[in-house]
Amino acid sequence: MTLQNQLISALSNHSIAVIGLSFAGGVISSLLPCAISMLPVLIGYVGGYTEDSRWDILRQVLLFIVGVSLVMTILGVSASLLGVAFGGLVGSNWYYLVGVIAILMGLHLLHIIQVPLPQFITRLPETKSGHVFAPIMLGMAFGAASSPCGTPFLTAILGFISQEKHILLGAGSLFAYALGQSMLLLVVGLFTGLLKHIAIVRHVGKVINALSGAIFILAGLLLIAQGAGWLDALASILE
């Protein structure tokens, strides 16, 4: 029996084993576009805002992943109960908003802007409370903006919530799936943190900050292009 069939069977039987199966399904799906699309954001954040401590980097990467998983769970449950497509709750205005925030954070890292509102947004990760809330908020924002992967595992979980209305088990399954899908983010985030730590030891931290700022700006521009439909139009032309 395949993992997908095991997941469907566990969902049908309301088995708690569905949590572990959902996590495994998420790990398998972690190389698909929706997981990979968040890598530049996490790399930019770790490279530009996290402290030198390896434990601090691990903590903030994990908080980012929690934010991604939370928003995927909320959107998934809401979409299933409302009978709309997963991701259909996120309009183009959200892409514009998150894209602008990303660009502002990038410009701040590059020391190009220093105005009141952008400082409030961009300096949040540098404050004491921001070390906890900033990675969660960023994870939620970019998790909502990233296009969800229509994998068989996710389809099975969303279908279960829609038909059975078993919110607790469905939400737990979605959260486990999102955590599994974020394992690639964990590996890349920790690797980026290691590179930054080495770079700081070698006194080239400013270069890392500049690269992180550029990555944030690129991610923001791509989000705005996605919201405007330019990326879909380009994909159609290339086909």
Keywords for this structure?
about 240 residues, mainly alpha
What does this molecule look like?
This protein has 239 residues and is mainly alpha-helical. It contains 13 helices and no strands. Helices cover 78% and strands 0% of the residues. Helix 1 (3-12) packs parallel to helix 9 (152-164) and helix 5 packs across helix 10 (167-181).
Helices and strands in order, then pairings?
Elements: H1 3-12, H2 18-28, H3 33-36, H4 39-49, H5 54-82, H6 92-109, H7 116-122, H8 130-145, H9 152-164, H10 167-181, H11 183-201, H12 205-228, H13 230-238
Helix pairs in contact: 1-2, 1-9, 2-10, 4-11, 4-12, 5-8, 5-9, 5-10, 5-11, 6-7, 6-12, 9-10
Q: How many strands, which pairing sense, and closed or not: the largest β-sheet? A: none
Note the overall shape. Answer: globular
- What is the radius of gyration computed over CA atoms, rounded to a whole number of angstroms? 19 Å
- Are there runs of 5+ residues with pLDDT below 50, and where? none
User: H/E element string?
Assistant: HHHHHHHHHHHHH
Distance between the termini: 36 Å
The mean pLDDT is: 76
SS summary, helix count: 13
Count the strands? Answer: 0
What fraction of residues sit in β-strands?
A: under 5%
Summed up:
This protein is mostly helical.
